[in-house]
Design brief:
Layout: H1 4-19, H2 24-32, H3 36-39, H4 41-64, H5 66-84, H6 90-118, H7 121-153, H8 155-176, H9 190-197, H10 200-220, H11 223-230, H12 235-258, H13 265-289, H14 293-319, H15 326-354, H16 358-377
Helix pairs in contact: 1-6, 1-7, 1-8, 4-5, 4-6, 4-15, 5-6, 5-8, 6-7, 6-15, 7-8, 7-12, 7-14, 10-14, 10-15, 10-16, 12-14, 13-14, 13-16, 15-16
């Protein structure tokens, strides 16, 4: 049986690669004399590489096999990370970050697909819970590591670390991902892919996953401004609040990874109803009390806990919609989730500029959208 911890690790390399760059931006701004707006391309290029590559990796993995595609992708990531050690211009770094993302994007796709193919339903839900917990914890720890290494050992040390981590995971995948994960799916044809695109279950779960990401990203783009400008918190206090929210999210996923009962339909349905109540209550509280630390933190923390419990089942539902196309489903659902997250990040920023209180309406709207998609995906399910 494939190790759940290994699958969690290969899924976490992608968010680790983007999050570790956060503390490097001020250093790069001073050393390379570029504005923060120009340096943001280091992030957008990475996200673009993931969004473009994951659907393609999913289709290729179903056609050619998951193991060879995983090994090839991680080899590309290692090569790009090694070249970044010697990159000295922003344009070179942007190009290599794009290549990095193209390579590492295979990890999330293949890990989700292998869980679906190799584990029974209850164990798969627990594995997705561990995967989600690991991916939620990574953005907390990665900036801390980058913030310590870069000032002490230079920017090159961060890219060296990514090279070593990628190499270690490449070796582990070569040794422990089974050879039969390279088996070609008979359903991996154009007709089969069209059946995925026509699947209401796939689009329902994918939409639900995207809206859950949207709740977080609606606050991500302007979260620091919201807490510092509107509530007078210091950046240290904001970091504490954001870190605490991430740990609450991880806690929810960790609970699911240790209790398959939470993945049962009746418990998931209760969590969905709770999230819908949180979303509607947010609109009512902000309309009645206005924007305050209480009307932001309470719904945000509540939503993060419920999201941690619900995200694994939405990911599993998407890859399980058409079982013989688990790779294609994993790639397309992951890419769509990132696109929706990016859309809500832009929408949250636009709402904040128009009226800071509207950002919570955007946040709540994503929660309601999730509930609608979830019920659409489970239409006709009479399980109790």
């Amino acid at each position: 049986m494939v190790s759940r911890w290994l699958l969690a690790a290969i899924s976490s390399l992608s968010p680790f690669g983007v999050s570790i760059m956060v503390p490097l931006i001020p250093i790069l701004g001073q050393s390379m004399h570029h504005s923060a707006r120009e340096l943001q391309y280091l992030f957008s290029a990475y996200v673009l590489g993931l969004a473009l590559s994951q659907p393609i990796f999913g289709i290729v993995a179903d056609r050619m096999g998951k193991r060879p595609v995983l090994l090839a992708g991680f080899a590309v990531f290692v090569g790009a990370s090694a070249l970044l050690i010697f990159a000295h211009t922003l344009s070179d770094m942007i190009i290599l970050r794009f290549v990095q993302a193209i390579g590492v994007g295979v990890g999330t796709v293949v890990a989700r697909s292998i869980i679906r193919d190799y584990l029974p339903h209850q164990e798969a839900l627990k594995a997705f819970g561990l995967l989600t917990a690991a991916m939620g914890f990574t953005p907390v720890i990665a900036p801390i590591i980058g913030g310590i290494m870069a000032p002490l050992f230079g920017l090159e040390s961060v890219f060296m670390l990514l090279t070593l981590l990628g190499s270690a995971l490449l070796i582990l995948c070569y040794r422990h991902i089974p050879g039969d994960a390279g088996a070609v799916s008979n359903g991996a044809s154009l007709t089969g892919y069209l059946s995925l695109l026509r699947s209401a279950s796939f689009w329902g779960h994918t939409g639900a996953f995207g809206f859950l990401q949207g709740m977080v990203f609606a606050l991500l783009s302007t979260g620091s401004l919201l807490f510092t400008e509107q509530f007078g918190l210091s950046m240290t206090a904001f970091s504490f609040v954001w870190g605490a929210s991430a740990l609450i999210y991880v806690g929810g996923s960790f609970l699911l990874s240790h209790s398959a009962a939470l993945g049962a339909y009746k418990w998931q349905r209760r969590a969905v109803i709770a999230l819908a109540v949180v979303s509607v209550s947010t609109i009512l509280m902000v309309s009645w009390q206005g924007l305050s630390l209480l009307t932001v933190v309470v719904p945000f923390f509540s939503a993060m806990l419920l999201s941690g419990i619900l995200t694994p089942s939405t990911m599993f539902g998407a890859v399980n919609a058409v079982p013989q196309l688990s790779g294609s489903a994993a790639g397309l659902s992951s890419s769509m989730g990132m696109i929706m997250a990016g859309a809500f990040s832009w929408l949250g920023a636009a709402c904040y500029e128009a009226n800071p209180a509207w950002i919570m309406l955007c946040f709540a709207g994503a929660g309601i959208g999730f509930a609608v998609c979830w019920h659409g995906a489970h239409r006709g399910n009479t399980a109790r």
